[in-house]
Design a protein that fits this description.
Distance between the termini: 31 Å
Order of helices and strands: HEHEHEHEHEHEHHEHH
Shape: globular
């Protein structure tokens, strides 16, 4: 997310190299990353760095799969969300064309609708995404930060239009949860719900989670969890997390990632240093058994 802004090109290349060296495959970015940290007030820096890395590493594009998002890049600098590009057919087409130029590729492996745009008929958005799949510009399409009912409606519209439907969801999720019905501070974030999971499991959709490691709050005392997570369930879950991490001789972050994967969720991890990626990839080797899952469930 922060490549090209808070994470300079040299750091980003080191992270990407470590990711591929460790067996990583999927790179998730967005055309709006990271307008809030870019003096220009617009997105594109993250995709530009990924594209530069691909050019500097011959053969890398054959190894990695690229996911990016359209819909939230501000059209006027420093004016998000008022000037977010949205999800009209024209905006989607233009956004993808610009992303491909920055990435230096002729297609993306997964294209996300970054957030809802209720000013545009859902039929139009669905048709635009389906057309990109038909052209081979996107191999797969999905919805980020959309409620389950909108995804279900979009999939129905795709069937009616005879185009490729959204087959993946991306929402915020982690081991700890905020207090019910309490908005999180981060604008645009939508929490994963039981309804989302039910839809995904019944329809065979992929589920990706962001903010999976809560910006380091599981392992860094200097980064406490937001106040919306201040409730007894959090304390109990964190206590169990510490116990299990100690029993398995792994980090708390690795247990959290392993727990997400046991739920059938693909966690997205943001990193600014190579060692963070190495820690995250090692979580694939952490095995949580049913007893561990029961302990976490009981702590909630």
């Amino acid at each position: 997310m922060d490549f090209g802004t808070r994470v300079d090109r040299e750091q980003a290349f080191a992270v990407l190299d470590a990711f591929v060296d460790g067996g990583g495959v999927w790179l998730d970015t967005a055309n709006c990353y990271a307008f809030w940290a870019d003096p220009r007030g617009i997105g594109g820096a993250s995709e530009e760095v990924v594209g530069a890395w691909l050019r500097a590493r011959p053969g890398a594009r054959d190894v990695v799969r690229i996911a990016t998002k359209v819909g939230q890049n501000p059209l006027v600098p420093h004016s998000w969300p008022d000037s977010a590009e949205g999800l009209s057919a024209r905006a989607v087409q233009a956004g993808v064309e610009e992303s491909l130029l920055r990435l230096g590729t002729d297609h993306v492996d997964l294209l996300w609708a970054h957030a809802e745009d209720r000013a545009v008929p859902l039929e139009e958005t669905v048709g635009a995404f389906g057309e990109l799949v038909a052209k081979g510009v996107a191999l797969r399409v999905g919805a980020a930060n959309h409620p389950a009912w909108r995804v279900a409606r979009a999939r129905s519209l795709a069937r009616e239009q005879g185009v490729e439907p959204w087959t993946a969801l991306q929402l915020r999720h982690s081991l700890v949860q905020p207090r019910p019905f309490t908005p999180v501070a981060e604008a645009g974030h939508r929490m994963l719900t039981a309804e989302d999971l039910d839809l995904a499991r019944s329809e065979g959709l992929g589920v990706w989670s962001y903010s999976s490691l809560m910006w380091g709050s599981y392992v860094r005392p200097d980064r406490p969890l937001p106040r919306t997570y201040d409730h007894p369930g959090t304390e109990r879950v964190l206590a169990v997390l510490g116990d299990i991490a100690g029993e398995l001789s792994v980090t708390g972050n690795q247990v959290v990632l392993a727990w997400l994967m046991r739920q059938g969720i693909d966690p997205i991890v943001g990193a600014s240093r190579a060692e963070q990626i190495e820690e995250a990839l090692a979580a694939c080797r952490v095995r949580l058994d049913e007893e561990h899952l029961v302990r976490f469930a009981g702590a909630r």
